[in-house]
Amino acid sequence: MLHNTGAKPIVVQDLRLCFPEDGASIAPLSWTSTRSHLRPETNDALKLPAGFAVPGRGAEQLFIEFGTEFPHFTPEARDYRVSIEAKLGHRKGWRSIITFNLHVARITDPSRYIAYKNSLEDVTDEQLAASKSAFEELAAAASRRAVVKGEAESNGPDADAGVASGSPDELRVLVHRGYFLSNASQPATGVSHFANESEDGAAEEHFFIRVTNFFPWEVELEYIWFATNPEVHLVRPERPLPARLRSNETFEAWIPVSEVPQETDLEGRVRVRLSDSSVFKSRLNHDVPPEGFTARPGNS
Fold it and tell me: Could you tell me which residues come within 8 angstroms of residue 286 by beta carbon, excluding any fewer than 6 positions away?
């Protein structure tokens, strides 16, 4: 809640979350988005950062999200002294508008978007232990993510960056060929004699690309393409990108086989790039049932 006690409006150009007692070891977290309400719900509108004005002798209530990309910052289950700083239209530089203790130990499931009270008054020892364990697991996963990203950057987008040495497959990209069923009320794949027909009367074969997020945090799929010559990017209105995937969620898209250059090992030539620039490589999906529905499109 921002309260302007003066008579003139105040323009807020930008906000950030700082850790004054941790020095340079923790960089300020940028303003990443604004939510329409605090309680996580499916109709929660997510807006990009944008300047706003607080009217004279008025107040403005906002639900601001601060963040950065993993593994740049992985919090610990402890108290942090934090300061919210603002860039104001009538002042130069950043100015602190409030400083308080952030009780991170209150958070018991850091991989999900959940609203917590910033208080330790009613927290039990069991909850504190669960929080410590959850953040230790998050730190270990962030360390593995750093290795994966490092391999992707050093080897290039065509490298097998989906699996780092000694680490689990945390973003799985599987590709198979199939057809759309003509007798299904929802998008479904199956064998050719049930398939929709193309304009010339022949069943049209498609590549189906399934991306599953096994990271303990939400990721954003930025681009999906075939690493062929020339490259073929997936641009489908039914599956818009970028798309967000929560932990253990699956995104699936498709493209007609006829739109991809006929090269070898096409099931292994799909690349998925995340918003942090890490790139993951596909492999053939060997475990495909004769019929099945396509996965959800993710959260755009």
Answer: none
C-alpha distances (whole Å) from 138 to each of 90, 144, 196 are: 41, 10, 45
CA separation, residue 71 to residues 64, 66, 143, 152, 217 (Å): 21, 15, 7, 14, 11
pLDDT in tens, 210-234: 999 988 778 889 999 999 999 999 9
Tokens linked to 120: 């330790």
Pairing of strands 243-245, 171-180: unpaired
d(CA 70, CA 151): 15
Which amino acid type is present at position 59?
A
The span from the CA of 162 to the CA of 283, in Å, is: 10
Q: Is residue 251 a contact partner of residue 244, using CB atoms and an 8 Å limit?
A: no
Q: Please state, as a whole number, how many other Cβ atoms lie within 10 Å of the Cβ of residue 109.
A: 13
Residues composing the chain = 300
Delineate the domains of the chain, giving CATH numbers in brackets: 2-123 (2.60.40), 158-293 (no CATH)
How far is the C-alpha of 15 from the C-alpha of 88, rounded, in Å?
A: 9
In contact, 228 and 221? CB cutoff 8 Å: no
Q: Which of 205, 275, 269 is nearest to 232 (CA)?
A: 269
Region of residue 201 (phi > 0: left; psi between -120 and 50: alpha; otherwise: beta): left
Q: 144: exposed, middle or buried (C-beta count within 10 Å: 0-12, 13-18, 19+)?
A: middle
Which of 294, 269, 70 lies closest to 189, judged by CA? 294
- Is there a contact between 279 and 271 (Cβ–Cβ < 8 Å)? yes
104 pLDDT more than 90: yes
* The residue to which tokens 């130069």 are assigned: 92
For residue 244, what is the enclosing H or E element? strand 243-245
pLDDT tens digits along 105-127: 999 988 777 888 898 888 899 99
Tokens of residue 32, six digits: 């990443």
